[in-house]
């Protein structure tokens, strides 16, 4: 049967063919089978030949041929960006089907084994594909994490320039089969809009088990999310075992063996875990074991969670922790915090904290202020992280304007709020050429107990109103800044830690995280309504 195809972009429609031409092969005029010799004409010496009159006969009946309508795009979450429709039966798992790896693509064995288990078919390794198989292959051109999934001739082939892309192709296949029982005929061409897509979890204020975290990683992987931020140090707790400073570790914590298990799972799912040790604020758990490093105001009153950055011992302690955990976490980023330093929330930091003002002038000159000392602290911690081969991230309220010290340009700005003292609009960071990650507290902050006017975000609001350009409040920055916005993360913060159980948190963030994943994979207006999207998510996940 002739194969017809038409390209159908995401959200587009295609006219369905109503009839298919059936080809017939005409026999010779005598009705002889094709290739058979015609009967000889009578002839003789001096005679003439004559042709018999053609005989009327009914045309042969056409051989019945099964036909198919043009396929539609697979229904997945997030939606695929492009699908080239075709006619054919598609693919579904059968008892004889298997997962195979193309020659030279042996690095995809983990992805292949995982998919085989999910589809309940055989994993056969690096052998030639046969009818009914799914073949995974590395190769071809394309953006990082992109893939092409082709379904034809009763088989599926998933290719990509890197392992992550092929893995995301397997997620598309898995969801399509789970939702409809099959993978439609045709070709999916897919890639994410943003390189950083993820979930941020505060385990410092509320302890979450390794098993709970692993379940979230699996959920993230099926949504094609690739970054898991782990905030494990704050005023309420320090939640990972330490070899350099065991005195700071909370009773409830993850062992390093548990962390390595989490990291091993994350690696197989193409998720990078980004650790965060927040300083110079949010260090209360550390400072309970080191009270001599607490920041005291001019009256000798300590500020909650704030470390005295005028003391060399403060930098030594924090840097030892940064180096220890940089060695534990293999990913390419480390979050150094820098938000809500309490010395900068008073009317006159120089008057309230004269020791900081003196240290600032000594280090950065007579015009330096406390904010310059804090900015220098951020740069110094970023330098420690950089020396371990990682990129530093910091919260946006750790970047100040109008000082003698400026934050290093290679520190990624994690924009979460415009409510801090001296708040700077997102466009200022972007106009400076900085790279920004979106954690807009108006849409992406799930704060347990809903304190300080926070309300639990809904998936519908994210799906219908938020895009990566909406960094602060509800107003997007100009589209020209889009390339500088690296992506975003949905964030769980546990300010009132007993407000929800672990199970309630998992249930509460399910659809907001799903909507976030859709908008980070494809920031365009979705084709489905919210109700359609929610119903689809329930079916394919």
Please tell me about this protein's structure:
There is one protein chain. The protein is α/β, with parallel strands linked by helices and about 550 residues long. The chain has helices spanning about 110-120, 165-180, 210-220, 255-270, 285-290, 310-330, 350, 355-365, 370-385, 425-430, 460-465, 500-520, 530-540, and strands at about 5-10, 80-85, 100, 120-125, 135-140, 145-150, 155-160, 185-190, 195-200, 225-235, 270-280, 295, 300-305, 335, 390-395, 410-415, 435-440, 445, 485-495. The chain is elongated, with a radius of gyration of 31 Å. Mean pLDDT is about 90; it is low at about 1-55.
Major beta sheet summary: 8 strands, mixed
Structural class: alpha/beta
Q: Which term fits the overall shape?
A: elongated
Extract low-pLDDT stretches.
Answer: 1-56
Helix tally equals 13
Spatial separation of the terminal alpha carbons: 36 Å
**Whole-number radius of gyration?**
31 Å
List the helices and strands and how they pair.
Elements: E1 5-9, E2 82-86, E3 98-101, H1 109-119, E4 122-125, E5 134-138, E6 147-152, E7 155-160, H2 163-180, E8 186-190, E9 196-202, H3 210-222, E10 227-233, H4 256-268, E11 272-279, H5 284-288, E12 294-296, E13 302-307, H6 312-328, E14 333-337, H7 349-352, H8 354-364, H9 370-387, E15 391-395, E16 412-415, H10 426-431, E17 436-438, E18 445-447, H11 459-465, E19 485-493, H12 502-521, H13 530-540
């Amino acid at each position: 049967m002739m194969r017809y195809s038409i390209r159908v972009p995401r959200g587009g429609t295609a006219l369905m063919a109503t009839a298919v031409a059936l080809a017939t092969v005409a026999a010779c005029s005598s009705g002889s089978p094709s290739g058979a010799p015609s009967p000889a004409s009578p002839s003789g010496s001096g005679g003439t030949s004559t042709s018999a009159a053609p005989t009327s006969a009914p045309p042969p009946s056409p051989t019945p041929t099964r036909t198919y309508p043009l396929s539609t795009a697979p229904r997945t979450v997030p939606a695929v960006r492009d699908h080239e429709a075709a006619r054919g039966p598609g693919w579904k798992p059968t008892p004889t089907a298997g997962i195979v790896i193309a020659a030279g693509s042996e690095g995809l064995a983990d992805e292949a084994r995982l998919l085989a288990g999910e589809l309940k078919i055989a994993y056969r390794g690096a052998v030639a594909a046969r009818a009914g198989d799914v073949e995974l292959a590395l190769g071809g051109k394309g953006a990082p994490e992109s893939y092409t999934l082709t379904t034809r001739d009763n088989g599926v082939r998933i290719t990509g320039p890197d392992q992550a892309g092929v893995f995301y192709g397997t997620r598309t296949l898995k969801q399509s089969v789970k939702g409809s029982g099959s993978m439609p005929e045709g070709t999916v061409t897919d890639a994410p809009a943003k390189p950083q897509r993820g979930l941020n979890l505060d385990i410092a204020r509320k302890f979450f088990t390794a098993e709970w975290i692993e379940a979230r990683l699996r959920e993230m992987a099926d949504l094609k999310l690739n970054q898991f931020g782990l905030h494990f140090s704050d005023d309420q707790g320090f939640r990972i075992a330490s070899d350099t400073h065991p005195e700071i570790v909370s009773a409830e914590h993850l062992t390093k063996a548990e962390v390595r298990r989490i990291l091993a799972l994350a690696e197989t799912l193409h998720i990078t875990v980004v650790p965060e040790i927040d300083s110079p604020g949010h260090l209360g758990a550390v400072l309970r074991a080191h009270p001599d490093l607490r920041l005291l105001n001019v009256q000798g009153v300590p500020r909650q969670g704030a470390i005295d950055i005028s003391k060399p011992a403060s930098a030594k302690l924090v840097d030892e922790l940064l180096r220890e955990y940089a060695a534990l976490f293999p990913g390419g980023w480390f979050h150094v915090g820098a938000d809500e330093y309490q010395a900068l929330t008073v009317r006159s930091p120089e008057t309230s904290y004269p020791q900081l003002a003196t240290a600032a002038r000594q280090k950065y000159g007579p015009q330096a202020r406390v904010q310059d000392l804090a900015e220098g602290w951020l740069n110094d911690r970023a330098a420690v992280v950089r020396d371990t081969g990682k990129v530093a991230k910091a919260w946006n309220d750790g970047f100040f304007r109008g000082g003698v010290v400026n934050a290093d340009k290679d520190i990624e700005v994690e924009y979460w709020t415009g409510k801090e003292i001296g708040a700077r609009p997102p466009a200022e960071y972007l106009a400076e050429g900085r790279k920004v990650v979106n954690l807009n507290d108006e849409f992406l902050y799930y704060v347990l107990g809903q304190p300080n006017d926070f309300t639990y975000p809904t998936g519908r609001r994210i799906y219908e109103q938020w895009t990566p350009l909406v960094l602060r409040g509800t107003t997007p920055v100009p589209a020209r800044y889009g390339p500088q916005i690296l992506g975003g993360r949905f964030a769980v913060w546990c300010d009132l830690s007993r407000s929800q159980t672990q199970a309630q948190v998992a249930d509460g963030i399910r659809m907001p995280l799903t909507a976030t994943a859709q908008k980070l994979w494809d920031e365009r207006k979705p084709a489905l309504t919210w109700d359609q999207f929610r119903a689809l998510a329930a079916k394919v996940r």
